Amino acid sequence: MLQKFSSLDADVIIAGAGPVGLALALDLGRQGVSVIVLDAETGGPDARPNKRANAINTRAMEYMRRLGLSPQIHAFVASEPYLVRDVAFVTSLTGHELTRFVDAFESSPEPPESGLSPEEYLRIDQDDIAIMLRREIGRLGNVTIREAWRLDGLTNGDASVTVEAQGILSGERASLRAAYLIGADGGASTVRRQAGIGFDGEGGRGNNVNITFVSPEIDAANRHPEAAMFWIVNPRLNGFAGGNFRTWRLTLFAVSEEDEAQVRANPQPHIDELAGRPVAAEVVSIDRWTAHHLVARNYRAGRVFIAGDAAHLHPPTGGLGMNTGLGDASNLGWKLGAVIRGWAGPALLDSYDAERRPHGARVVAQSNHQYNLRPVRYAAEDLLDRGPAGIAARAEAGRRIRDEKGTEFFSRGLVLGQTYRSDAIIGDGTALVNSEVIIYTPTAQPGARLPHCAIASGSIYDAISTDGLTLVTVGRQDSGAFAALARDAGIPLKIIEAAPEMAVVYGARFVLVRPDGHVAWRGDAVIAAADLRRTVGRDPGGSVQPAPVSGSASHE
Ligand SMILES: Cc1cc2nc3c(=O)[nH]c(=O)nc-3n(C[C@H](O)[C@H](O)[C@H](O)COP(=O)(O)OP(=O)(O)OC[C@H]3O[C@@H](n4cnc5c(N)ncnc54)[C@H](O)[C@@H]3O)c2cc1C
């Protein structure tokens, strides 16, 4: 039973205004939940010189669509020269091309199937997404972002969480109280540590250096067809280059401390090696990142949750870090909102860890597997030979790269095939359909993402309720008994109809879908009342639970 709060500063405090904290703030704010975001950054996203994620995947775009951001992200991307998604493996930008993954990332290596999603993988910097999220949050009256405020301490109480915070520039101190706290405060998360949540795995698996630079000469020298990334396979350079092509980012893998000092003192030889000949370049920044293999032991401790890099840390190989964090937000946002607003029970919140941590562990393992397959592995001695030995060595390198690196650039199974198991998912005994990284098989088995289809009004995803459960009937079905059960249980239920042809993919006449687009239950007859309650963490035999009264939130 939720407590009644009379003196809360907000329903939820979020530490961290990276993409994950901001997405959660917008999601909760849209549900009428009051939120305070504390962010230790002093300059905001447009002030960061070191670029990180430069792409958002299909599943994360589906979440952005739910938050209403999809049109502006598409408009932004259309104005940028980011369209090519190929990944090329080359000996240098003026050298040989060994192989190319055409239309990479979770697009399929086979001819693309149509209609898997109304969204797609898009190339855009994470800071540009953060700017758009902030703009939308600015339109809400119930979400406050406290810039340059750092969370320093927390007390995880039975009925509320108290946070100690400090204004970094002002020196001012504040004690804030909320029903829940989310740590979206990045890899070094203070929230995670103070909540007593440890990491499993291995930290510090490798030191890596990014050189960000501008060079019109290298643009002109590049003799290869366009690509989103050029991986350099050459005994003298172990890295890849990409970026947004106004600025280049050359990543050097597994650099020792001594070598890093040399790179910092003189980055030019590495840029020349990338180019394959000397080129003029202006270096914008040199920064390092560390490869980790870490997953938090729990994503929840009492009233405290962690999400994004605070919960899972891995190398960027495969481009899954921010995208997985946005998946955490998509899972946690609706659950917290539903519990605070009273249509779900507090037990639902346990399903966040049960559903997201296994996926986080899978992503961490997969990203590290690919981090271990660095380009120098394919740099055979004869690779740059001008004669037949070189031709043979390059053909062999290309073949090995295709064999081994496929799961880094084609991961539709991992991205769209995420399937949850928890107390809030009513299983139907079917074996897990999607367990591969590359191949995705559309299925509506409980826990899976509802396979996409078109309905009369457009994409079925646009019809899924963000504010309750959705019953999808396959063809016209009598859904009166569902409506009555949901009414009795106080669970908002929207009913929509998919075409009868979806019976093959959906595998049942009725599919119950959550706001995050995952299937909670499916069947051919009405759901048992106790199962319906379980999908939202409610006591199977309990009565309607009144919405708690918050000190500050404006609940509907
Ligand atoms: C070189 C590189 C390339 C990458 N490429 C990709 C890619 O292509 N695709 C992808 O999906 N991911 C990529 N990533 C990973 C991605 O950048 C991260 O996963 C993502 O930024 C995580 O978002 P977050 O919101 O969890 O954390 P962060 O972005 O780290 O944000 C955390 C925020 O919390 C704030 N904060 C910290 N401590 C406190 C505190 N005590 N109180 C208040 N605020 C605090 C910080 O100031 C920061 O604003 C890449 C990473 C690197 C290093």
Account of the 3D structure:
- It contains 15 helices and 22 strands.
- The longest helix has 23 residues, at 350-372.
- Strands 1, 2, 5, 6, 7, 8, 14 and 15 form an eight-stranded mixed beta sheet that branches.
- Among the domains are: 10-81 and 122-200 and 294-369, 3-Layer(bba) Sandwich (FAD/NAD(P)-binding domain); 420-535, Glutaredoxin.
- Strand 19 (469-474), helix 13 (480-489) and strand 20 form a beta-alpha-beta unit.
- The two termini are 20 Å apart.
- The protein is of the alpha/beta class.
- The structure holds flavin-adenine dinucleotide.
At a glance:
The protein is α/β, with parallel strands linked by helices and 556 residues long.
Low-pLDDT stretches are 1-5, 546-556
Rg for CA atoms: 25 Å
Shape: globular
Can you summarize the main beta sheet? 8 strands, mixed
Report the portion of residues in β strands: 15-25%
In CATH terms, the superfamily of one domain is FAD/NAD(P)-binding domain
- The CATH C-level name of one domain is Alpha Beta
Terminal residue distance = 20 Å
Number of separate helices: 15
**Can you count the beta strands?**
22
Structural class: alpha/beta
CATH architecture of one domain: 3-Layer(bba) Sandwich
How is the CATH topology of one domain named?
A: FAD/NAD(P)-binding domain
Mean pLDDT: 92
Helix content: 25-40%
Bound molecules: flavin-adenine dinucleotide
